[in-house]
Structure formats: structure tokens, C-alpha cells
Amino acid sequence: MTKSASQYHRQTSYDRHDMKGHGLDWPNQPDVFKRYPGLKTVPLPEVTAWPQKNLSFLICERSQAEGPTNVTFEKLARIIRLTHSLTAKARMSGTEFYYRSVASAGALYPFELYVAAHGIAGLDDGLYHQSIGLEALTALRSGNMLPNVSDALPAGKDGSPVLVFFLTSIFFRSSWKYRDRAYRYHLLDTGHLAENLLLALRAQDLPPTLHYDFDDEKVNGLLGVDPCREVCLAVVCLWGKKASSQEAPGSLKAPAKTLMDASQVSAREVDYAPIREVHTASSGVVAPTQGVPKMLHNLGLKTGPGQEISRPDPWPEVMNYAEAVFKRRSRRNFVQTELSVTRLAALLKLLCGTGHEPEDARLFEKEALCVGFLSGNVQDLNPGLYVLDLEQGAMALSSQGFMIDKMAHVCLDQAWLANSALHFVFLTNLTLLDETWGPRGYRYAMLTAGRLGQRIYLGATAMGIGCCGIGAFYDDEAAQLLGLNEQTRLLYLVAVGPLKR
């Protein structure tokens, strides 16, 4: 029985000398488009204008927005398309394949997006599912669902939600290929989607709040998903002014079988017990009983003096934010060409931001996760492992030496990784996660790693360079190469560098 983050992560670690190969069950390949046969769909209105802001502005400049006003169906359609869109089509093995604006391990797209709307001009109040293949919303429940949403979220926000997004993951889509290890990708990929959504809202001058903590059972029941197959992992809210008399949550009908059946994406699905067990274990929210230690100081790494990260002037962007969203790809045809120090500084500034984060109960980047990078071929920067202090906007050298080629060997011998200029690494102390937040801390760390990974994808795209995320590596070897202590492990790696032209 999987009862902790540390236990799950170690149980699903890859070992070079103990890799059990398996074939893919192609006749039962999961459907990447969730379908609700027979339910009403509402076509998304055409978007006539896209935001012209740059990614650097959205992340590194403070918004003056005070809250949502006059959110129309067209504005909601713009937000949804900037969050999650089909961006290109190819034909592979005789079938059509669609690229998307969101990064996903193995292009399996486990995530789904739902929205509870109230008072949106042009759209009836209700709960909807984004049917991405239809360019439409599918109506799941009618009426004002927002009091029920408020009932499932932690108390403390002075106001009432006016628009709420739910981000779920369907287990079998990723476990079809990655088996027990797939919960890692459920969390990382949902984090990718969450970052796209937060940026889309900021681009509309709408200040979001991001919630990793909520009542799992209430939210899954509201969405009508089959919780053995699909679960909510994050909630994003827009808040209005405090209501004079807040409406009490209504009594919801049990989800129709039609809704729950839609969570099944293959005729014959396999239940991987460690995934279900770790998610169930993480369903409780644990409030830390004392001050939360900073993850940066609990990895076993020694660092030298911190160096402030300079702000690029000008920013080396060659396209704006919206263009970057729609042109984002996993590009790995790296060449051994030097990455400019200006581009490195821009990527680091995007990771650090300027405090312009969604109003979350905690900034998990600083508490549940640490970000570093391996420098290999960067202008005026010695090769080595550097650690970021996201709060201070600084970097410090931890260990010297060229490790890019060794990390490529650790990442299942994917030789192309050795050609990239740098590897961003996302690290956490698993024992500290469990001690501080219980198993739910694993969600915090992995979702945040996914968020920041998507930010790197978009930043690299905006600057015209390549980027590709890696979740598959020999876990213990990675820890040894980086010099981590026994409790700390690599969660995610994102490679960046110039591309072959």
C-alpha cells in the first residue's frame, strides 16, 4: 500500500539494471478526446483579436487589474483557446495526430479543462467541459454552481467566485504507456495546463487565484467524474466583490451515469494500484504545525555566494506571448552552439517572476520545490550546477564541471540531450514534503514543477530557441550526479538550447 510521496516516488524509480520492458496495447490506446454523447454543446465564439503583450510583461510586470468586470463569452473563449488549443495536425501511422499548446509526456494529454460560469454575457449559467476537438463547451450541469465551489475551497477569500476552472487528469491516458510511474506525469502535465491558464487570465487583466487545496470528494462529485479514473488536481478562480448575502450551496444531484462513463477512455483499462493509492493518500490537506523550511536549504547541496540575476535589456523575444502559445512544440534538434547570456538571464527572470504570482495560500515554488540548472554551453558562464533562489532573484554555483553529457546518459541514454546548452532541474526533499504536508505535498511539488516547465517552454519559444521536457531518467543516478542527499530527488528536467536551422 502506497502511503507517502517518498514511498511512491521510490517505488516508481527507474533503475538501469532493473528495467522491465513492456509492449503497448495498441488496440486499447486511450482516446485523447473526452466525449459526452448526447449532451448539448455550445460552440465557442470566434476570437477576433489576440493579446499583443509579451510573455516577459505578463510574468515580470505587476498587474494593475482589480478584478473581473464584464467577462463575456468571447473573452472566455479567448482565455480557453490561449489555455488549451489544437495547434497543428499531422498524419502518423495512418491516423491523424493533433499537436497542442500544452506540453505532455508522450503526447498523451491526460488533462481536461472544466469551467463553472455565472453571469457571463452570452453563456447560460452552469458547469461546462471544454470539448477541444469540437471547439465547443459541453453543458454538464445548469444553474449557478459557484456556491458549491466556494463550499469545497478553503475559507479566507473575501468575496465570491464569478468564474472557476477545474483541471483534471485521466489516469489511464498516461498509465497506458508509463504504468505505475504515470502519476508523475499526471501532475506535471496538469501543471503545464495550469500555467497556460494563469497566463491567459493575466493577458486579459484578470487576476486569478490558484488552489492546490480543496475538498477532493466535493469537487470530483460536482464535475461528475469517475474518481477511480479521473480526478481534479487544481482549481483556478476569479473573484468578484463580496456579496451582501452569499448564496448557500445547493443540493447537487448525483452525477448522471453519462457523466461518469465519459471518464473511461479505452475499452479495456488497467488499474495501476500505486497511482490510485498515492492519490487517495494525498486527498487530505495537512496544515504545517510550524514554520515551513525552505527547500533550497534541505537538498544536501553546498552553494557559494549568490549572484543577482540581471534583467535583460532589451528582452530577447522574437514573438509575443500569444504567438508563443500557438507555436510551442517540444523541439530537440539541438546543436552545440553557445547560448547567449542574455537569453539565459531572460529564462531565469521568467522563472523568478517579480512576485506577480496568483494569490495562493503559499508560494510553493519557494517551499516545496527548488530549481537549478546545469550549464553546458552558455556564454561567459562556467559549466556546472547552479541553484536558484527564486525569492531573492539570485543564482549560486553548487558544483563545477561539465555534466550535460553525463545527464544525457542518466536520462535513458537520450544522446540528443548532450547537444543542449543547459538543463533546468526541479528538485525536492521527499521526506521533508511528507513531514510538512503529508502525501499532498507531492502534488504541490510536481504541479509547480510542471507550471515552471511550461513557462520555460513558452519563454524558449518566444526567444526562438528549442526546449524539451524529460520525466524519464534513472532516479538514483540523477541524484548521485547532482550530489543530492538521500532524501532528495530530481522530479523533472527541461533541456534548452539553440536549434539546427
Essential attributes:
single chain; 501 residues; alpha+beta; seven-stranded antiparallel sheet; 16 helices; globular
What is the secondary structure topology, with strand pairs?
Blueprint: H1 5-11, E1 41-43, H2 55-60, H3 73-83, E2 86-92, E3 95-100, E4 111-117, E5 126-131, E6 136-142, H4 146-152, E7 160-170, H5 171-178, H6 182-203, E8 209-211, H7 216-223, E9 230-240, H8 257-261, H9 273-281, E10 307-308, H10 321-327, H11 341-352, H12 364-367, E11 370-375, E12 384-389, E13 394-400, H13 404-410, E14 422-429, H14 430-437, H15 440-462, E15 466-470, H16 475-482, E16 488-497
Overview of the molecule:
By secondary structure, the protein is an alpha+beta fold. It folds into two domains: 244 residues, NADH Oxidase, CATH 3.40.109; 203 residues, NADH Oxidase (3-Layer(aba) Sandwich), CATH 3.40.109. The chain contains 16 helices and 16 strands. The strands form three sheets. The protein has a seven-stranded antiparallel beta sheet with strand order 1-6-5-4-7-9-8, sandwiched between helices. A hairpin with an 8-residue loop joins strand 4 and strand 5. Helix 4 runs antiparallel to helix 7. The mean pLDDT is 92.
**What coarse outline follows from CA principal-axis ratios?**
globular
Approximate helicity band: 25-40%
Q: Radius of gyration, rounded? A: 22 Å
Q: How would you classify the helix and strand content by structural class?
A: alpha+beta
Strand content: 15-25%
User: In whole angstroms, how far apart are the ends?
Assistant: 50 Å
Profile the largest sheet. Answer: 7 strands, antiparallel
| Strand tally | 16
CATH topology of the largest domain: NADH Oxidase
Residue windows where pLDDT falls under 50 for at least 5 positions: none
- CATH domain class of the largest domain: Alpha Beta
**Largest sheet, order of strands side by side?**
1-6-5-4-7-9-8
Architecture (CATH level 2) name of the largest domain: 3-Layer(aba) Sandwich
How many domains? The number is 2
CATH superfamily of the largest domain: NADH Oxidase
Mean pLDDT: 92
Put simply, the count of helices is 16
